[in-house]
């Protein structure tokens, strides 16, 4: 059986204030064309269909069109909600839409009830694990504790229990939206840290034949059976080096992944990250290849030059982001505050602040737990308000 694995469409998202709806429409045209050209048996969409809980109407219209075209193609589609989606909104009409072969899995209660497809070799059970906010689903799933690993383990226990009761030889696929250890993140993903820990081990998904992951925007192979498709478009300059693709997966009669091919997605405009002094960037002939790219320029001039954006866009008309990082000596007291915070989590920044106001005395274990709990409560409160809408 052949599957097309994709995720993280983020319909409605822009790129540094540049609308991407036309590029997203071109991707969906490409997806439907691939389904026909490559004789795909089912489409797997591993979450973050929309970019936010209440998407703009043009994004909803684009999603509606995509569903109609997939249904008309007669190709089953299994889709889960991600941490950017409103699970309740995305799941509206799920039972009715299922009659057209579009299977929306947004309710944790349905984790153990797969979509079952059949080919000449027997059944394939597809289990959809929507994004699971630990504090909101722990009790319902019977997880032993709060945390991503605990709730995903509880969810997978339900999957394995259902699979054990199916005929011998039933093949299995899981769709999940999570940060799995070994995956490389970018600046585009929304933080899902709980108690300072967001990554879960790939072993959580043991016992199934293929795991179609969403959340991380780079296409990645964690094991031959556990893969991220990545997003079809770049949503931050940290993705400048990504090759945007979908996975075309052939699952054999015995459940083995017989073939895994990356199918390239359309690129609306290449990305470029340039760094150097302004005059050097304007004069460097080797940068001519980036004159039609979306550009992020980091200027290292010791003194901020006059009208830098106007001068940059004269050569690079699609410059979207300008960063100043002046060349300084190691002991310079004016070193960038942003630079000191780079790659540090909210919890680490808060701990540093507490240590600063205490004259260097850091947090003890109990205080650190309280601080982590406060960050979790803020996010869970926001998620709970969304669920209640």
Automatic annotation (TrEMBL):
The gene is sbcD. This is Nuclease SbcCD subunit D. The lineage of its organism: Bacteria, Bacillati, Actinomycetota, Actinomycetes, Kitasatosporales. SbcCD cleaves DNA hairpin structures. These structures can inhibit DNA replication and are intermediates in certain DNA recombination reactions. The complex acts as a 3'->5' double strand exonuclease that can open hairpins. It also has a 5' single-strand endonuclease activity. It comes from Streptomyces gulbargensis. Heterodimer of SbcC and SbcD. GO terms for molecular function: exonuclease activity. Residues 1-218 form the Calcineurin-like phosphoesterase domain. Keywords: DNA recombination, DNA replication, Endonuclease, Exonuclease, Hydrolase, Nuclease. Pfam families: Metallophos, SbcD_C. Residues 268-356 form the Nuclease SbcCD subunit D C-terminal domain. Belongs to the SbcD family.
């Amino acid at each position: 059986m052949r599957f097309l694995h994709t995720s993280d469409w983020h319909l409605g998202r822009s790129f540094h204030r540049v609308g991407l709806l036309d590029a997203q429409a071109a991707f969906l045209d490409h997806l439907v064309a691939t389904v026909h050209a490559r004789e795909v048996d089912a489409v797997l969409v591993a979450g973050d269909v929309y970019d936010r809980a209440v998407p703009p109407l043009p994004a909803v219209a684009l999603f509606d069109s995509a569903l109609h075209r997939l249904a008309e193609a007669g190709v089953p589609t299994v889709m889960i909600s991600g941490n950017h989606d409103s699970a309740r909104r995305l799941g509206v009409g799920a039972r009715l839409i299922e009659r057209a072969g579009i299977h929306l899995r947004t309710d944790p209660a349905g984790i153990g009830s797969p979509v079952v497809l059949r080919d000449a070799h027997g059944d394939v059970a597809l289990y959809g694990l929507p994004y699971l906010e630990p504090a909101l689903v722990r009790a319902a799933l019977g997880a032993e504790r709060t945390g991503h690993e605990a709730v995903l383990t509880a969810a997978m226990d339900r999957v394995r229990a259902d699979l054990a009761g199916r005929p011998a030889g039933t093949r299995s696929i899981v769709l999940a939206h999570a940060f799995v250890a070994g995956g490389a993140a970018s600046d585009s993903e929304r933080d899902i840290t709980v108690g300072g820990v967001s990554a879960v081990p790939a072993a959580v998904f043991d016992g199934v034949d293929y795991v179609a992951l969403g959340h991380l925007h780079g296409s990645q192979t964690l094991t031959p059976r556990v893969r991220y498709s990545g997003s079809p478009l770049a949503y931050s300059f940290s993705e400048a080096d990504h090759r945007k693709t979908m996975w075309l997966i052939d699952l054999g009669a015995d459940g083995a992944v017989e073939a895994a091919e990356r199918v390239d997605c359309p690129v609306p405009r290449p990305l470029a990250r340039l760094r150097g002094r302004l005059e050097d960037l304007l004069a460097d002939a080797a940068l001519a290849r980036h004159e039609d790219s979306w550009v992020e320029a980091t200027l290292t001039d010791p003194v901020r030059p006059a009208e830098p954006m106007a001068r940059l866009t004269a050569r690079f008309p699609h410059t979207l982001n300008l960063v100043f990082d002046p060349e300084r000596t190691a002991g310079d007291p004016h070193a960038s505050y942003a630079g000191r915070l780079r790659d540090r989590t909210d919890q680490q920044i808060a701990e540093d602040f507490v240590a600063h106001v205490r004259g260097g005395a850091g947090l003890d274990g109990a205080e650190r737990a309280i601080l982590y709990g406060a960050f979790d409560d803020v996010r869970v409160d926001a998620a709970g308000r969304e669920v209640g809408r």
